[in-house]
Specification:
By secondary structure, this protein is α+β, with helices and mostly antiparallel strands. Helix content is 51%, strand content 6%. The protein is built from eleven helices and four strands; from the N terminus they run αααββααααββαααα. It has helices at 13-16, 21-34, 48-64, 93-111, 127-139, 159-170, 173-183, 214-232, 237-260, 263-272, 277-284; strands spanning 73-79, 85-90, 187-189, 192-194. It has a four-stranded mixed β-sheet with strand order 2-1-3-4, with no helix packed on it. Strand 1 and strand 2 form a beta hairpin. Helix 2 (21-34) packs across helix 4, helix 6 (159-170) runs antiparallel to helix 7 (173-183) and helix 10 (263-272) runs antiparallel to helix 11 (277-284). It is elongated and about 70 Å long. The relative contact order is 0.11.
C-alpha cells in the first residue's frame, strides 16, 4: 500500500490530501462496492486489493513524477429511449481507483462553486428534492417550468475551456496535469485506439465534475429563455408552454402517487393537502394507473 504521503505534490493543502493512505483506502472500498465491468486490461474489482499491494507504491511514484498514464477507456453504447445510443466509457479498475481518490478530495472544493439550484450528481442531493423545489416554486405563483437537455454534452466538451474553469477553482498544476491525463487517456472502440482531444468519457467516478462549466452556461440559457418567453407570450408560444406545464405537473403528481403506495398513506396525504375526507378515500382506492388517477 502507498505510504501516508501525498501522491500528488500540490500547493493547496486540500488537494495534497488526494491520495494519502486514508483517502486511497476509502477510494478502494467505493470502487469495489460499486463493482462494474472490467476495463481494457480485464482486471476486475476483486483483483484491486492485490494489485494495490503489489503496484501501489510504483503507481503513486509515477503520479508524483507526472509519469502516470491512464489506460484507454473501453467504449460501450447503451440505447436511449428515442432510439439513439449513448456513449459510455469503462475505465480500468486501476484508473477508477485513482479517479475516485481524486474525486473525494475535489468534491467539497467544487461544491462551493455549484448553484444551490443544482441537484444532479451532488452529495446529499437527489431528483426527488428537485421535484419538491419545483412544487414550492409553483406554490409561490411561478407559472413556467422549462426542461432543457444538451444533446451529446459529454461528447463535445471543449477540454481547453474546461481546464481553464478547473484552474480557476483549484489553481494547482499537479492536480490539473492529472485531470488532463484523465481527459486525454484515449478510448478503445472495438479494439481500435482513438485519441480524445474533445469530449469526456461519461461513466467514470470523476465524470460528474465535467459538468462544472454548465453552471455559467445554464445561467445564460435561463436569461435568454425568460426574454424569449416574454417576447413571444402573445403568440402560440404561450399555448405550447401551457400544455408543457400541464404535462410536467401531471408527472410530478404521478411521482408522488407512486411514492405514497398504500391506500391509507395516499388518503392521509390527500387529507393533509386539504381534500375532503370522502374524496380522499375515493381517490386512494382507485384502480386506475398512475397517469389516470387524478
Amino acid at each position: 500500500m502507498p505510504r501516508s504521503r501525498s501522491v500528488v505534490t500540490t500547493n493547496d493543502e486540500k488537494s495534497a490530501e488526494a491520495v494519502v493512505v486514508e483517502n486511497l483506502e476509502e477510494a478502494k472500498r467505493k470502487v469495489m462496492s460499486n463493482k462494474g465491468s472490467a476495463g481494457v486490461d480485464k482486471m476486475t474489482v476483486f483483483q484491486l486489493p492485490k494489485y494495490i499491494e503489489e503496484h501501489g507504491d510504483d503507481l503513486c511514484e509515477a503520479i508524483r513524477k507526472r509519469k502516470y498514464r491512464p489506460l484507454p477507456v473501453r467504449r460501450v453504447q447503451i440505447p436511449k429511449d428515442e432510439g439513439s445510443k449513448r456513449n459510455l466509457g469503462v475505465p480500468s479498475v486501476r484508473d477508477r481507483w485513482i479517479e475516485q481518490a481524486t474525486c473525494q478530495v475535489l468534491t467539497p472544493i467544487f461544491e462551493m462553486e455549484f448553484s444551490n439550484a443544482s441537484y444532479g450528481f451532488r452529495p446529499g442531493r437527489k431528483a426527488e428534492q428537485a421535484v419538491i423545489k419545483a412544487l414550492e416554486y409553483m406554490n409561490d405563483g411561478y407559472d413556467w417550468i422549462v426542461d432543457l437537455d444538451l444533446s451529446k454534452f459529454f461528447d463535445n466538451v471543449n477540454q481547453d475551456i474546461l481546464m481553464i474553469l478547473v484552474h480557476k477553482v483549484i489553481k494547482d498544476p499537479d492536480v490539473e496535469s492529472l485531470i488532463r491525463r484523465f481527459l486525454q487517456g484515449g478510448v478503445l472502440v472495438e479494439g481500435t485506439f482513438e485519441e480524445t482531444r474533445i469530449g469526456t468519457a461519461q461513466g467514470s467516478p470523476i465524470s460528474p465534475f465535467w459538468g462544472v462549466s454548465m453552471e455559467y452556461r445554464m445561467k445564460k440559457i435561463n436569461e435568454i429563455i425568460r426574454g424569449w418567453i416574454n417576447y413571444y407570450r402573445i403568440a402560440d408560444m404561450k399555448t405550447i408552454m401551457y400544455r408543457i406545464d400541464r404535462k410536467i405537473r401531471l408527472h410530478i403528481r404521478m411521482c408522488y402517487w407512486k411514492q405514497w403506495k398504500t391506500v391509507r398513506n395516499r388518503a392521509n396525504h390527500l387529507y393533509f393537502l386539504g381534500m375532503p375526507k370522502y374524496w380522499c378515500w375515493l381517490y386512494a382506492n382507485t384502480r386506475k394507473g398512475y397517469c389516470k388517477a387524478e
